[in-house]
Each structure stands twice: as structure tokens, then as C-alpha cells.
Amino acid sequence: MANKFYQWQKFRSRFGLWKRIFFRSKKEKINKLIENQGERRVQFSEESLQLLETLGQENLRVKEFIINNYKGLPVSPEMEEETYNYCVTHSAIFAVTTSNPGTSTLTEFLYEGIPFPSPIDNYFLQSKGGKAVKARLIAIEKELPKIIEEYRSKGNVLIGNLGSGPGRDVIDTLSNYYRNISDVRAIHIDRDKKALERGKRMAEIKGVNHLIEFVQENFLRYTPPQKFDILLLIGVLCPLEIETCIEYLKTTKRLLKEGGCIVASNVSKKMLREDPFTYYLMKWGANWELVYKNEEELKQIYEKSGYRWERCFSDSYGFHIMGIGRPYF
């Protein structure tokens, strides 16, 4: 009996070892593979590991290029071209962003998702950086009605959405809170004709097209029929150096009424720390250079531009900082 018990214990021990070897998670498998290539595990999120596993099944050369290039190791021009072509032809997000890094189509993909996304697109949609863009929209739509109500107590409210793209943030806010109210209106200003046309369709669908005017113009040169109570500058400052941001805010100050306010966003340094792989893919594939700033730097931009810094809020990931300030006149 003792001998049988010993054999059973030995079997259980071996079976447990067998399970650990053959039923390890996908993440463990890919981490092991990356370690064998000299990569550090801490640089990869669960989403990026899943992407690399899928790429390895479809095109091992593409996967190896991405890992080596991400590490800063030498890569051949031939492999870079092969990988670039693969990404552009296998990703809607990659394709639109490489053709126009500033396109609002990217943010709309991140807001709405993509039917039947490719593995690369699914990575962007599931990454922290991708989710934070939608979280930024949610945060703005939560805070904007509070700001509007502050000005509504004084009379009619006019919102200027600068570099608006379609302007989903304002469209949603007006649809949710002010659809049947005539004292809150908005003007969306953008150079992208297609983005504005899309905004018009969205506004019509949401029943607020009578509250929004769409203007195709460079907002830095735009002269409004009347000055604004509230200005939005969302996502515009992100690729700009601090001195350029200061010039932008100085220029837009002339658009505000006395006592008006501006809400401007910038991507934070937290995103660079917590989602470096997404940053790498966008920088390599689309030359998507962002200038990450912290709250103190954004505050200094406001103050050096002639604004009184009031407060800020962020998305739920802390990847985007939205500052609120009022101009000194």
C-alpha cells in the first residue's frame, strides 16, 4: 500500500510539472521567446504580446523586425520596407495615419471601433494609449456641461471648437443636454473639409445641426463674427514644442470674450511611461511625434501666454491633461 501511495505521489508531481510546461499562458510563451532574442519582458504589455504572437504566426520576419527595431538593434532597409508595407496593407489605422498623421479618422476609429479589426488594429483599440483617447472624449463630455452652465447663467453661450475635426465632443454634449435649447451654440473650425462634412452628418443624426456652424479655415487666421465664451483646443498642442504652444495660445486669445475661458489638452508623460510600445509603433510607422508634457508644463504654457490657470482634469488613464484658463486683458 505504501509503495502504491508513493507511486501516486510521484505521478501527481510529474503531472503537475507537465501541466506547468504545456499549459503555460500565451504571455509566458511569448515572453520566453522574446527573452531568447534578448528582449526585456517589462517593455511589453499583454496586448503587445498578443500582437507579436499573431504576427509570428502570419509573418515571422515582420515580428522579428518589430522586436529588433523596438530594441534599437540594427535592421536592414529591406526588412523595414517589408514590415512597413505589411502594416499599411493589414491595418486601417496604420494606413490612414501614415497618409495623414493629423487625421481625425484615427480618433474616430478609437472612439467608435472598427468592424472586424485586423490584429494590428485590434492592438491599437485595446492598448492603453488607444483606450485613453476615448476616455479623453468621455472626460470632456463630462466637464463641458459644467463650464457651459457657468456661462449660461450670464446669457447666451458661444463655443469655438478649434481644430475640431468633426467635433464629436461638442456634438455629443449639445445632443445630450442642449438639443432643444437655443442659447447654446457652437462653431467648429478646421482645415479638413471631409472632417467637417462628417461633423455635419453627425450633427444632423444627433438632431443638433441647427446649433452648430462648420467653418473650413485655419483657426489661427480665423476671425469670428463674435467672440467666444468658451474655446476648445483638444489634441492640437500634443505634437508641438512648448514655445509653439505658447504662440498658439497667444494667437487664440483674441477670439475670447473678456471673462471667457479656454480648454486645451495635451498628452501626458504618463502615457510615454506606461504605453511605450504604442508610442514606438506610431512614431516608426506614421512619424507621429508627440511632445509629452506634465501638468506643471501645461500650466506654464498658459501663464506665459497670458492666461490665468484655473484648474485641470484628465481622462481615467491620466494620459491626457485638459487645462482650463482665462485670459488676462
Structure characteristics:
329 residues; alpha/beta; Rossmann fold; seven-stranded mixed beta sheet; 15 helices; 7 strands; 16% strand; globular
Break the fold down into its secondary structure elements and pairings.
Elements lengths: L1 H21 L3 H11 L9 H13 L1 H12 L5 H13 L2 H8 L4 H9 L6 H8 L1 H25 L4 E6 L5 H10 L6 E7 L2 H13 L6 E5 L11 E6 L8 H11 L3 E12 L1 H6 L1 H11 L8 H10 L2 E8 L5 E8 L2
Parallel strand pairs: 1-2, 1-4, 2-3, 4-5
Antiparallel strand pairs: 5-7, 6-7
Structure description:
- This protein has 329 residues and is an alpha/beta fold.
- The chain has a domain of 182 residues: Vaccinia Virus protein VP39 (Rossmann fold), CATH 3.40.50.150.
- 55% of the residues lie in helices and 16% in strands.
- It contains 15 helices and seven strands.
- The protein has a seven-stranded mixed beta sheet with strand order 3-2-1-4-5-7-6, with helices on both faces.
- Strand 1, helix 10 and strand 2 form a beta-alpha-beta unit.
- The longest helix has 25 residues.
- The chain is globular and about 60 Å long.
- About 11% of the residues have low confidence.
